[in-house]
Every structure is written in C-alpha cells, then in structure tokens.
Amino acid sequence: MKMVQCAGCDRPILDRFLLNVLDRSWHAACVHCCECKCNLTEKCFSRDGKLYCRNDFFKRFGTKCTGCSQGISPTDLVRRARNKVFHLKCFTCMMCRKQLSTGEELYVLDEKCFICKEDYLNSRHNQ
Ligand SMILES: [Zn+2]
Ligand SMILES: [Zn+2]
Ligand SMILES: [Zn+2]
Ligand SMILES: [Zn+2]
C-alpha cells in the first residue's frame, strides 16, 4: 500500500479519514485555518498554499472597507457610497460620528472622509 503523506504535517496518514484539499491529502485534524487555527471541516479557502476559514479569508483577501481598511466578510453588513464599500459601523460622519444610512445626504470631503448634511451646513456657516 502506498503511504499517503499529509500535506499539513508531512506525516503519513494512517487513519481512514483523510481530506483532500488543494489536490493533496490531509489528516482531518491538520486542516485548520492558518490565522485562527480553527478546524476546517467543511468549507475552506486557500491562497498561496495556506488555508483559511471563511472569515479570515475574507478579512485578508476580500473587499476592504474604505473606513477602517479591514476586510469585509460576506456576513458583515455594509454600506456603499459612490463606488466605495464600508462596514456598517464605519459608515459614520467624521464630525459627529453619527452612523449614516444609505441614501442619507452626505458630503464627501475626500476619498474616505464624509460628513452628514448637518455638519456640512454648520461648517459652511462658521467659515
Ligand atoms: Zn497531518
Ligand atoms: Zn480562521
Ligand atoms: Zn470598516
Ligand atoms: Zn455629522
């Protein structure tokens, strides 16, 4: 019998249960996310030969939030403004920190700074 080597720990796989990931064989216990070390029993994502759980994969390689520059996972709620994407919690007025909703009037100051209408009017007033 040909000995199968685990792609994770390089030890032979003697158990009956092995997983095929990235066209290689793994001990079930060796398939874990390289970031949070959680066991990947169902779906896993890979990039450059490394394995990631869904969350960490999207954190790393997914669309980035314009506000905090962190990745956006598919389960995160997002807001869009122009062609930028923000976490719901990052979509706030930079003056009063009020969370803005889609469709609410806002004034973009530069790439990722925007203020609510109220603050915009106030700042115009004070100049
Ligand atoms: Zn292994
Ligand atoms: Zn993970
Ligand atoms: Zn964010
Ligand atoms: Zn505001």
TrEMBL record:
Protein name (database record): LIM/homeobox protein Lhx1-like
Residue span, LIM zinc-binding domain: 4-63, 64-126
Assigned keywords, A-Z: DNA-binding, Homeobox, LIM domain, Metal-binding, Nucleus, Zinc
Pfam families assigned to the protein according to its UniProt record, in alphabetical order: LIM
Localization per record: Nucleus
Classification lineage: Eukaryota, Metazoa, Ecdysozoa, Arthropoda, Chelicerata
Major localization listed first in the record, in broad terms: nucleus
Coiled-coil residue windows: none
